[in-house]
Write a structure and sequence with these properties.
Blueprint lengths: L1 H4 L3 E2 L8 H6 L4 E4 L15 H12 L3 E5 L4 H9 L6 E2 L8 H11 L6 E5 L2 H10 L3 E4 L9 H22 L1
Parallel strand pairs: 1-6, 2-3, 2-5, 3-4, 5-6
The structure holds magnesium ion (MG).
């Protein structure tokens, strides 16, 4: 169980994921969560850091799409306005096979050479695993302080512990 939910890779922040790392690991396409992965919930638009990282991906031929559980018509649309990537809201992660298929087809990507990037194990990592993709976890930029999230984070703890133990040995 711990192995199943463990991400393949963990980074301190999205932009620590370099083009070299992606290429070395055969990742040509990234499906990316928005909230708390690229920006806090309260931040409607991408900041400089996000834009710089995404343009580096683009320049190096790494395809990307946004796959969010947040509102497609509002949150995702506004965040993506200046970026213009394939972007999907209301995607029901972890049960997002349909959206993943649509996103990969928009990017002409395939499962094998794609990774799912997000801040939640039971949403993003699980969504990727269910589709057979590689997964990359980052810590949440700014967690919502509500009991539901606190509970989810509590459940993530043993998995993270397992991940770090595994990566040291
Ligand atoms: Mg998130």
């Amino acid at each position: 169980m711990l192995d199943y939910f463990s991400p393949d890779y963990y980074f301190e922040r999205f932009d620590k994921i370099s083009v070299d790392f992606l290429k070395e690991n055969g990742i040509k396409t990234l499906l990316i969560d928005i909230d708390n992965t690229l920006a806090p919930y309260q931040q409607a638009e991408p900041d400089e850091r996000v834009l710089a990282w995404l343009s580096e991906l683009k320049e190096n031929g790494i395809g990307f799409a946004f796959v969010s559980n947040n509102s497609g018509g509002v949150r995702v649309k506004r965040f993506n306005k200046s970026i213009g990537a394939p972007a999907y809201g209301d995607s029901c992660k972890p049960f997002a096979k349909k959206t993943v298929t649509r996103a990969l087809s928009a990017l002409s990507g395939d499962i094998k050479s794609s990774a799912f990037l997000g801040d939640q194990i039971f949403t993003d990592v699980w969504a990727g695993k269910r589709c057979g993709m590689k997964t990359i976890l980052v810590p949440p930029i700014n967690d919502l302080k509500n009991p539901f999230f606190a509970f989810k984070r509590l459940l993530e703890k043993p998995i993270l512990k397992h991940y770090f133990k595994k990566s040291i040995t």
